[in-house]
Amino acid sequence: MKTKQAFNPYLPSYEYVPDAEPHIVDGRVYIYGSHDLFNGLNFCLGDYVCWSAPVGDLSNWRYEGCIYKREQDPAAPRIRLTNGLAAPDMVQGPDGKYYLYYFMGGTKMISVAVCDEPAGKYEFYGYVKYEDEVPVGKKNEPFQFDPGIFMDDDGRLYMYSGFALAGNPILLDGSKPTEHGPMCFELDPSDMLTVKKGPVYIGIAGEKEAPGTPYEGHPFLEASSMRKFNGTYYFIYSSLNSHELCYATSDNPTSGFSYGGILVSNGDIGRPGVTDVNHAKNYTGNTHGSIIEINGEYYIFYHRHSNRKQSSRQACAEKIRFEDGKFYQAELTSCGLNGKPLSGKGHYPSYIACNLYGKKGTRFLSMIKHPKRGYPYFTQDGKDRESGDDQYIANMDDGAVAGFKYFDLRETSKIRINIRGNASGMVYIRTAENQEPVAKIEVKPTKDVHGFVSELKAPGEKQALFFKYEGRGSFDFISFDLA
Question: Where is this site: Important for catalytic activity, responsible for pKa modulation of the active site Glu and correct orientation of both the proton donor and substrate (predicted)?
Answer without folding.
Answer: 146
